[in-house]
TrEMBL record:
PANTHER family: SLR5056 PROTEIN, UNDECAPRENYL-PHOSPHATE 4-DEOXY-4-FORMAMIDO-L-ARABINOSE TRANSFERASE-RELATED. CDD domains: EpsO_like. Keywords: Membrane, Transferase, Transmembrane, Transmembrane helix. This is Glycosyltransferase. The chain crosses the membrane at residues 6-27, 299-323, 329-349, 361-379. Pfam families: Glyco_tranf_2_3 (PF13641). One of its GO terms (molecular function) is transferase activity. The keyword Cytoplasm does not apply. InterPro entries: Glycosyltransferase_2, Nucleotide-diphossugar_trans.
Length: 398
């Protein structure tokens, strides 16, 4: 009975321990020297699929931000569009290429198409750095210039802090979701960078030096193509660096579609974790690579709500086993790990999250966890396996 209790308790203990370590090491901001010198030739590459409701606002903001940066240009890839995305982008005076392929769908294919266009340019016109932005994101001149300079100076992929926009009066469920993303994309990313020397990619706000972007395996219809690309780069020995002072703000999904968006992200993450986490941990240990080990361990930690749901379920199981003569030690250690994990989340909230998640919204956390249960059950019953676009706020449902 005691052995069975340890078998049940050990996975959540390990996951919670690593989660807590990432947060504790991520509470302090990363200090990274900012390179000077002239701005490298930079292309902001925007893959856009049916983004007529958002692309004008995005391009207007970006054009204002880079108005004084003659080394920066914008390329929009209108990917399988059935609306006015390409026309609107051209009206803003940016470069546009169109792609139509009903079989190969997804952002990865759009990025590869844009990369092929850039590669066809004369050598003195090709970018020295490429920044990938989603069509519903916004940033500022300092962040974009910093990303470009860091990618070019370090000759490694770099990742900006990608956070969801916080709006006054946002629903508690939206606030909680935004806070969970802040923990993952900022606090844990800092910790991961400190532990392994690199992080994963977030899909937008990604910067690449041209030599790496030119040969990267971009063409993918994977649910989380950014995660796949980061793992490919890691196994080539390339470490993605977090540039946290560069900020990219993404708009949350339309309220009615938040569940679909979370399903796509989290189902994709879980699929990747099931297939890649343990092999990466093994390669990290056998190859003495703390980078691969850190990425593998990061993948072993489920999304925040699922982590604590599983942990409490396992705690209940080992407590029940203790009633049938098993030792209380597994339950005690697991309870300690749960309390440490919860304490780390509180510290992250106090340090970074109080503007994102109000005290009133915290009271709705149990409801948020219950709301996520069908999402995780769907991973086993109706798993998302193909790319799909999330509807934007303000769009009309088909």
């Amino acid at each position: 009975m005691t052995l069975l209790a340890w078998i049940i308790a050990l996975p959540p203990i390990v996951a919670l321990g690593w989660f807590t370590l990432e947060i504790l090491l991520g509470l302090k901001r990363l200090d990274r020297a900012e390179p000077g010198g002239p701005l490298p030739r930079t292309t902001i590459l925007i893959p856009a699929h049916d983004e007529e409701t958002t692309v004008a606002r995005t391009l207007s903001g970006l054009l204002d931000a880079i108005a004084e940066e003659t080394a920066m240009s914008i390329l929009v890839v209108a990917d399988n569009c059935s609306d006015a995305t390409a026309r609107i982008a051209r009206e803003h005076g940016v470069n546009v290429v169109e792609r139509s392929d009903a079989e190969r769908r997804g952002k990865g294919y759009a990025l590869a198409h844009g990369r092929d266009h850039l590669a066809s340019l004369p050598a003195d016109e090709r970018p020295e750095a490429v920044i990938v932005l989603d069509a519903d994101c916004r940033s500022d001149r300092a962040s974009l210039a910093l990303l470009a300079r860091q990618a070019h100076a370090l000759q490694v992929p770099v990742q900006a802090s990608n956070l969801l926009a916080s709006h006054p009066g946002a629903l508690p469920m939206v606030q909680i979701s935004n806070f969970a993303m802040l923990v993952k994309n900022l606090v844990r990313a800092r910790g991961m960078n400190r532990i392994g020397g690199g992080i994963t990619l977030f899909g937008t706000g990604m910067g690449f030096p041209w030599p790496i972007f030119a040969t990267a395996a971009l063409a993918s219809g994977d649910l989380v193509e950014d995660m796949k690309l980061a793992l490919d780069l890691a196994q080539e020995g390339r470490k993605v660096q977090l540039v946290e002072r560069a900020r990219i703000i993404s708009e949350p999904a339309a309220s009615a579609d938040m569940s679909a968006q979370r399903s796509r992200w989290e189902h994709g993450f879980l699929q990747t974790a099931l297939s890649q986490a343990l092999p990466l941990v093994a390669r990290g240990v056998l190859g003495l690579s703390r980078h691969l080990l850190a990425i593998g361990m990061h993948l072993l930690v489920p999304p925040l709500a699922l982590l604590f749901m599983l942990s409490f379920a396992c705690l209940l199981a080992v407590v029940l086993l203790a009633l049938f003569s098993a030792s209380l030690a597994p339950a005690s250690v697991l309870l300690g790990a749960i309390m440490a994990g919860l304490g780390a989340v509180v510290l992250a909230w106090r340090k970074e999250g109080r503007k994102t998640l109000t005290s009133h919204a915290i009271l709705r956390v149990p409801g948020y966890v219950l709301w996520k249960i069908p999402l995780y059950l769907g991973f086993f019953r109706n798993r998302r396996t193909g790319w799909n676009r999330t509807r934007r706020e303000g769009e009309i449902r088909d």
